[in-house]
Amino acid sequence: MFRTVLAAFIGTLAVLAATPSEASSVRLKDIVEFEGIRDNPLVGYGLVVGLQGTGDTLNNSPFTQQSLEAMLERLGVNTRDQNINTENVAAVMVTADLPAFGRQGSRIDVVVNSMGDAESLLGGTLLVTPLIGADGEVYAVAQGPIIVGGFSATGNAQTVTKNIPTVGRISNGGIVERETGFELVHMNQMRLSLRNPDLTTAMRVEEAINGQLGKRISKAVDPTTVVLAIPEDRRLDMVGLLAEIEQVRVETDQIARIVIDEKAGVIVMGRDVRVDEIAIAQGNLTVTVTETPQVSQPNAFAAQGNTETVDRTAIQIDEGEDRKLTVLEQGVSLQQLVDGLNALGVGPRDMISILQTIKAAGALQAEIEVM
């Protein structure tokens, strides 16, 4: 019993004594992209049928009518120069992502988006639609019933709409017909691309890979790219090599940055933001005007008189005299900066102006990015 408690205590001390780099490290697979292992976007144009009067109006969507006539002609039905008046068909754009190393016959999900003035795709079925890649080749074919996550109900005086009924999804609705032809076993080297480029992080990735494999096979060539030379004895085991590398843990590093979305009033600050010693005061001039009109009437027994409306105006002025200076010491952390600004009682939008003013004063050691 004593040995068990002692072992647990030692384990707890080991966790508490872990260095910050161990606590904040991430897997390599979460911060880099491996060359060639990526999705390929596909797009196609098709028709959805079976809609209950919620499809395109053919007079307003000539491309829908032309597509419908062309499809019927391929099926042996001639409708040229005929007055087609149906609202059960909609023209759509179909999009999908061909996964890395997608093989012939495998299935992928597709997304269907209305192009015309259709009200809803609920209950519709997508007809056979070729999906092409950036090179113009057909890589998949999509077809199937559409699942819509919304609806629309319309009456004479009110309309209720939930989510977007003109967008739907077909799970496993696409069949891969062509492969990309990319093979890992043919590679002599592979480039790893950092999702967030940084010189320090690139060097740490190089050192971590070399330390894990015991060979100097990786080299950081710029803030984004680390080149990995494939050893001769591992070229037939590329999956095993990459699986080992992607589990390597690396401590990332980024420049101090503050991202501001002025439209939404959102502020996001990184952990490395620092502020030199500075004094801040924030105050607003607020003028409140309240109108309370009153009615003046003559006495009950007055010989004559008129009823008049008398204006009553109350004006209040708040000059922010209760707002005081707050001193932020040199090198304060993100938490101290936030606490100091909150102590002034400022909101997000006022905080944006304060941060920009601190930056202009040269006291903010961070980059400000306004979205």
From TrEMBL:
It is found in: Bacterial flagellum basal body. It holds the Pfam family FlgI. GO terms for molecular function: structural molecule activity. GO terms for biological process: bacterial-type flagellum-dependent cell motility. GO terms for cellular component: bacterial-type flagellum basal body, distal rod, P ring; outer membrane-bounded periplasmic space. Residues 1-23 form the signal peptide. It comes from the Bacteria. InterPro entries: Flag_FlgI. The keyword DNA damage does not apply. Keywords: Bacterial flagellum, Cell projection, Cilium, Flagellum, Periplasm, Signal. The basal body constitutes a major portion of the flagellar organelle and consists of four rings (L,P,S, and M) mounted on a central rod. NCBIfam families: PRK05303.1. Belongs to the FlgI family. Assembles around the rod to form the L-ring and probably protects the motor/basal body from shearing forces during rotation. HAMAP family: FlgI (MF_00416). This is Flagellar P-ring protein. It comes from Minwuia thermotolerans. The gene is flgI.
